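ugh finaly. both done.
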Amino acid sequence: MRFPNFLLLSLVLTSLSAAAQQPVAHLKIDAANIVRHASPRMYGLMTEEINHSYEGGLYAELLSNDTFRGNWMSIAQWSLVLKGDAAATSSLDPKDGPSTALPQSLELKVSSASPASPAGLSNPGYWGIAVRSHTAYTGSFYAEANPAIGPVTISLIANQTGAVLATTQVALTGNGWRRYAFQLHSGQTESSAENHFELTVAHPGTMHLQLVTLFPPTFDDQPNGNRQDLMEKLAAMHPNFIRLPGGNYLEGNTIKERFDWEKTIGPLVDRPGHQGPWGYWSTDQFGLLEFLEWTQELHVEPVLAVYAGYSLKGEHVTPGPDLEPYVQSALDEVEYLTGDANTHWGAERARDGHPAPFPLHYIEIGNEDWFDRSGSYPARFAQFAQALRKKYPQYKLIATAPIPEDSTKPGDAPDLVDDHYYKSPEQMFALVHHYDAAPRTGPKVFVGEWATVSATPTPDFGDALGDAAWMTGMERNSDLIKMASYAPLLVNVRNAAWRTNLIGYDALSSYGSPSYYAQCLFAAHMGDAIPQSTLTGINPSARFFYSITESRQERVLHLKLVNATTLAQPLQLALQGAGSGAHVATVYSLHGATFAATNTLQNPQAIHPVQSTLHFTGTVLTHTVPALTIEVIDLPLQ
């Protein structure tokens, strides 16, 4: 086979680059000399309703706009279905609904219909509805109708062929508002998201509809639950906590549009929903209790963020009497999480189906309050802190902006401060040593949002190198940095409003980015102590980074190595405390051919961890870190 001259030259240069390497570096590790303690809960998760992270993402509901929000044109996502000679109209009725929270409904007026020519509505889901073979789907709807218009036929239909993939009928049993449940079962079919939902009737009449839902099998078979593949990917990240309800979603664009937790609990029909800050409506069907049950399913703890009187477009609540209702709301919210059934809000939680309290150690007051130009945050924080510490002195408080020492009374200072970083790969490389010389007095640090931001919708390998480099810096300073969570976590690739996001998906499938796999490796191999180490022979300007932690009970060193250069890096490791016998180290390697290499829905495993072993004897190990490679090496101690 003959190659064009330019391609042959490219192959030669690539070969030469792969063969070239840096001078040997020397890393000395003294496992017996512990210089700092490492945080036991370093890595966690942070999400908010952005990029359809919940509705159209983690929250498994398949139908979009299931509460019939209207706009100036129509009722978004719902279309008339008229088969044969059927005739009907649909419109929004703003005065007839099943609850005070949902006072409106869709009115379907059918003037002509028959079993052979039904009329009704269709919904496309969130850019499609995934249908798989031999799968059970559950759903429900609220209807007000004369039973003579029924029965209601529920179906999943293939977009291209019109084939009915699953169908069932529901008899209407009364004239007033009633809730109807149903199940659908698909047969043998090729997995696809090019499908839609239909709800039809076979007789003339008028029917009002509200809260039409459809769920596939959910994680742990939980009702109103979460999407299986996304939950499995999150579990593989080995998180210790979830910061909820997350970021701008907590604040809202205005005070009115904040995450008002009391309106997100209880039966779905009693949740009015609210306008989210990222351009679309949130039904709040994934509400506070769903957040908390999510932590339970992943066996982690919540880091609860409470609204603190500041919203994104600049509105703020003046400290003092005006702020008191919001402080009381925060106290009530903590009681909803942690109170037993004898408390008011603990009893509400029990009525909502969760009698047992949730664990809690950290409360965050606000979000990104450094944007508040009024200068009110220190006083607002102090007012929240005084009330929370009086009733709940056991919890640590997190500030979202620096609190000047001269502005606080004794006891009002935060336990942690939330720092956020969104940087390019080069900026992340430069930031790695940011906390090395930071004072160890005063509040600890929660890096509540961070990401190397370059590619869209999910990180490429250059971003993963920046992320991994930054994580070595956080681990090296994990006596000061107690917790960290990448953000944003999830993106429906059909709605990438923000770059860059860790996990991408569409209606049918999902994938982890290169940064996702770096996160998984770092979190799964994190010790509880930081031993003494020194690295020599590396040019200070070189993009080579490392961290080392030790799991003292298991007697394992976890060495993280990041080579963000195009040259291989030879490394000689001197391991004091490893013993003189034979050793087998486990290596987890993540490699990209270029910064731009990445994973996609079409090629989800282009970059993924590869496991191998290193055999050595005694206390010296010679190893070469390939170019553009992230490695985690577990070194057993004797």
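ok and the 2nd:
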Amino acid sequence: MRTKKNHLFVKKIIARDISWLSFNSRVLQEAADDNVPLKERIKFLGIFSNNLDEFYRVRVAALRKMIELGSKSKMHLELDPQKILYEIVEKVLQQQKEFERVWKEIIRELKKEKINIVNETKLTIAQKKFVLNYFNEEVRTSIVPLMIESLNQFPILNDKSIYLACTLAKKDNSIPQRFALVSVPVRSLSRFLILPSTNKEQFIILLEDVISFCLPNIFSFFGYDVFSSHIIKITRDAEIDIDNDVTGSLIQKIEKGLKNRKKGKPVRFVYDKDIDVSLLAYLVKRMGLSQKENLIPGGRIHNFKDFINFPASVFAKKSNRKKPFTHPQLQNVQSVTSVVMEKDVLLHFPYHSYNSVIDLLREAAIDPNVVSIKITCYRLATRSKIINALTNAVRNGKQVTAVLELRARFDEEANLEWKERLEEAGVKVLIGVPNFKVHAKLCLIKKRVKNITTHYGFVSTGNLNENTAQLYGDHCLLTSNRYIMADVNRVFNYLEDPAKKIDLLKACKILLVSPINMRRQLLFFINREIKIAKRKKYACIILKINSLSDNILIEKLYEAAKEGVEIKLIVRGICCMLTESKKIKNGIQAISIVDEYLEHARIMIFENNGKPSVYLSSADWMVRNIDHRIEVACPILEKKLQQQLIDIINIQLSDNTNARILNNEQDNIYVNPRNQKKIRSQIETYNYLMKQ
């Protein structure tokens, strides 16, 4: 066990990947919290597992590449990537032990509620018959067993799949032992099979255990009568190598990259720790793996991300999640558009209904005075109502432009499909900008009445995805403010012709736009607070972001804190800033909130001597967001809306139930209520908005 002094601090910066693992520990804490409903605890285990998969597919894969490059590689302020990797393995193994402890505890709690997860060895006679029938009717045709010893080339294992590694033998040893692989078909079948129940007890068996039970039906014709199986899983490098030439064959490059991703280099091999030793050795040898690929022993169950969708029907207690409600200014109105043309409306998801955004687009689609709609799309819902509104607008004669970011990680394939569908409907689709991902969340609607043109639309912190809007904490400004809309129009004009119209971004007067002026303006705002503090007046910076890792901005925050500027941080994920120092006059309040909803919003508040500058933004404080993406931060200009956002942020800063302190050790100590009233910010925010 490493001591606290050995943590990876370099030049007053915490290594990004180590900080990310600390964030995932907070997710695991939610699963461990017995105050959280059981179904939610299981969901958090699924989220933890999915997060870790993506971490290995992207970050660990990148570190491996850095190691291969050797001295040419400089990362994390010249920190040795090999040392980071060692630290990662150590922390992940610790987390895995905690994961298994929590899961065993949850299983015990499920049993108390008469919910039983059984495997193939615990079935009753009636259940055995049911499982066998299900296998023959639903599963058999979906599996293709592989006799791997007879294959000259070992099959390429999909990193999103789990496999049953099987040992086949004969009791009397009359035929040699053989090995086989069976891919568990979780894409076409549910991972969970609810079994016939008696005495009000519920029984669930996993799909892999259904297959394990039926191994004799698969392999017995070979003459075997002894079978064993254990789950294995491989994680591959998921980075798609695409050069910066967007003008030519970006689509072909992404399609090729998606194919290559399936063959990406292994970065982790996870297996059931009870697997047959000879089978494990055989798999490692045939797959060409070594300890460098992070061979990690685990329990029976892998790809726990599927447990995010653990069947809700088995629980007697149904979810008490609050339902979204319509913003009070948009309730019982004939038109969302008419309200937005008169005043700004600030929506707060998931408390407010996302239907208001969809209604705004639907109204634009059928309004005879609307000329055009322009919108950016980064991640969309599977059955997107946004897309339906856009295609309907085309049918009604509107000019519709959609900026689709084809390089949105893990959504590349979906966005390629959306591109084809939108173009078939007549939408003009833009597919990116050379060198930059388009991550801004914008919509611009152009309306012409009696030769007078007006613009309205929205700027958001979250994706245009009505599904995740029910789970993610985000903010969306519906506005017709002509100064904001003028800048939004400049951004879209640039996106339509980036090679020639870069000056349009430089001309933006209201919006902060990456990579043009956002860094400069953020430094200006911080310096302004420093000057105010030096005049012995109250100075304060409040940031709510997903990630804080940009070294230049962190250094400037250090400088501000040393000069007496009060710094308050709400950082959900990565926080590379050391928040404790004797040199800091007022200290830094830094917390992370992990709760029922994902805190996804980015908010910046600069006190400015009592005249606060308040911004909502699509950008985290990371180098990639500030320098390598098209991002937008938008000011909240109306005083009432400014105060509303400040109130919500103050509620979150007062959270003493689900907030963890982001100290230098990032050991996720909960904020101590200290005999005060317990405040759970997501509940308090809902109540605050209901009163509005």
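summary for the 2nd one i guess: The first helix runs from residue 16 to 32.
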